Amino acid sequence: MRLNGKTALVTGGVRGIGRAIVLDLAKAGANIVTCTRQGGEPATTLEKELREIGGEHHVATADVTRPQDIDALVGECERRWGRLDIVVNNAGAISHVPFAELTAHEWHKVVDTGLTATAMVIQRALPLLGEGSSVINIGSKVATVGLPLRVHYTAAKAGLIGLTRSLAKELGGRGIRVNLVAPGPVETEAGVPDDVRERYRRMIAIGRMGRPEEIATVVTFLAGEQAAFINGETINVDGGI
């Protein structure tokens, strides 16, 4: 799967699944602008890895819930390349709160990051997207099964399914594809308690949690020409949970 010369914007690309996506796209030949809300060591080490891979890349500091930060992020892509071929909306937020105690502030923090910002990034990037472009939203398996204590997170991820389907129909005539990747439980650098890992192991048909790289390869596939007739789809990457 080669993406030589393609340009990509990946939100939330410094840690976990987002970082794996950035690195996989870069290895496939894409030039990338990505972002994090905070700099620090993860951003620094990502920049180093990207330099070793080669290509034109930039790690920005941006909060995608702020319209001015979205403008700056997409503006950076426009300044560098004048176009975008790939947009990956990975930025998200999560917290664990009983519904009876869920505040409006906490609701908006999670929904605005995971759903509203995705719509706003796509809208702002639209003038840079042309025939053959691919938009990939990162959802979650929980969108269709639900989880206690995560009503706001589940609602945001479920909203991404509708957003993806509607935009696929609205933008398909312009040659812009919009798809969603829905990961199941994935091991990241944050680590997973042994009891949780064991519970997931029993729930997942393949007998283990996923790895960020296994999500990233699906994103890279959807970004390329091999997926040219896939549009409006939700692809579950969950090991058969």
Automatic annotation (TrEMBL):
Entry keywords, A to Z: Oxidoreductase
Matches recorded under SUPFAM superfamilies: NAD(P)-binding Rossmann-fold domains
Gene3D superfamilies: NAD(P)-binding Rossmann-like Domain
Residues covered by the Ketoreductase domain: 6-189
GO biological process, alphabetically ordered: fatty acid elongation
Gene Ontology molecular function, alphabetical: oxidoreductase activity, acting on the CH-OH group of donors, NAD or NADP as acceptor
Pfam families, per database record: adh_short_C2 (PF13561)
Similarity remark: Belongs to the short-chain dehydrogenases/reductases (SDR) family.
Protein name, per record: Short-chain dehydrogenase
Organism listed in the record: Spongiactinospora rosea
